């Protein structure tokens, strides 16, 4: 059994396909497929089911995956111990998050990380999953940190920011209201997100105020929603973080305001890893009100 085979298995399970795994690992799809086939042949069992849906673990494959992640984590721990002995911070931080955090928070953070801690790598996975599923990634050990919109008391967590929702109008809208009430949205064509907690939260808010949205256009991707607003197909609703980069639309605050809270949650034991501490250190500098700990010098390199 080879290290490369276990890495391939974990990557395929995470991405849901051989093509996604090949992109993550920087290998050809045939190389990933060969690694899985040789591992299954060596063990004499089938670890993955293949089909039009892509690839997913069998029942036994799930058990093997759990052990494979433990092995890979142990190997990384050895590498980090060696780096510590040399006075270096190294390793990989496995992050699961949603798109607006990845583009608006993590992208500039990765630039700072490359300068301050060049031996630390971020393994980033974007998802539209609900917060409970993201917390599950900490439970099964497949992620070190996740960004969520609701706290799970079972994990260490810090609130990074409050993110207000806005009504989005095309540039040609005139006159533009100073604020938008839910009642004023009732007669308008709406474009809403159907993805993850963000879409669910706004749907619940609408229903609580007696506003029906059966005729609204629903899309998964924020950029799709924004482009529909640009083309004048309706008024969109998204949080600020998702639209800060969009210069071709006009934003109007909701009245009364509606906002989501973005939290960082950390896997049990992950704070022992200097790579994770380095990542949180940079986040603490970016969000000083969050209460995230700052690790300096020897504290960053300490064996917790």
Can you offer a commentary on this structure?
The protein has twelve helices and eleven strands. The protein has 304 residues and is of the alpha/beta class. Among the domains are: 1-86, Arc Repressor Mutant, subunit A, CATH 1.10.10.10; 162-260, D-Maltodextrin-Binding Protein, domain 2, CATH 3.40.190. Strands 3, 4, 5, 6, 7, 8, 9, 10 and 11 form a nine-stranded mixed beta sheet that branches. A two-stranded antiparallel sheet has the order 1-2. Helix 5 (99-116) links the parallel strand 3 (91-97) and strand 4 (120-126). The two termini are 31 Å apart. The model has no long low-confidence stretch (mean pLDDT 84).
Give the second-level CATH assignment, the architecture of the domain at 162-260.
Answer: 3-Layer(aba) Sandwich
List the helices and strands in order. Answer: HHHEEHEHEHEEHEHEHEHEEHH
Morphology call: globular
| Portion in helices | 40-55%
Tally the helices: what do you get?
12
- Tally of strands: 11
CATH class categorisation of the domain at 162-260: Alpha Beta
């Amino acid at each position: 059994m080879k290290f490369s085979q276990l890495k391939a298995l974990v990557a395929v399970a995470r991405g849901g396909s051989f093509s996604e795994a090949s992109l993550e690992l920087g290998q050809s799809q045939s190389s990933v497929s060969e690694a899985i086939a040789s591992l299954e042949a060596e063990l004499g069992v089938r670890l993955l089911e293949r089909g039009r849906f892509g690839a997913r673990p069998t029942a036994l494959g799930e058990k093997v995956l759990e052990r494979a992640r433990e092995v890979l984590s142990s190997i990384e721990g050895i590498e980090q111990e060696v780096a510590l002995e040399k006075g270096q911070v190294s390793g990989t931080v496995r992050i699961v998050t949603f798109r607006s955090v990845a583009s608006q928070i993590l992208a500039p953070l990765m630039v700072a990380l490359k300068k301050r801690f060049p031996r630390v790598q971020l393994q980033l996975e974007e998802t539209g999953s609900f917060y409970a599923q993201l917390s599950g990634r900490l439970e099964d050990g497949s992620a070190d940190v996740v960004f969520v919109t609701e706290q799970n008391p079972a994990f260490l967590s810090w609130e990074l920011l409050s993110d207000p929702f806005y009504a989005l109008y095309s540039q040609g809208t005139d006159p533009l209201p100073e604020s938008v009430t839910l009642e004023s949205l009732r007669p308008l064509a709406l474009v809403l997100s159907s993805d993850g907690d963000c879409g669910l939260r706004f749907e619940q808010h609408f229903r609580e105020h007696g506003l029906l949205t059966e005729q609204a256009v629903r899309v998964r991707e924020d950029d799709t929603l924004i482009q529909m607003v640009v083309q004048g197909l309706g008024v969109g609703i998204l949080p600020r973080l998702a639209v800060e980069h969009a210069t071709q639309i006009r934003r109007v605050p909701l009245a009364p305001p509606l906002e989501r809270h973005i939290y960082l949650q950390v896997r049990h034991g992950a704070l022992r890893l200097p790579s994770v501490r380095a990542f949180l250190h940079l986040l603490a500098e970016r969000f000083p009100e969050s209460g995230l700990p700052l690790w300096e010098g020897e504290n960053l390199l300490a064996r917790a």
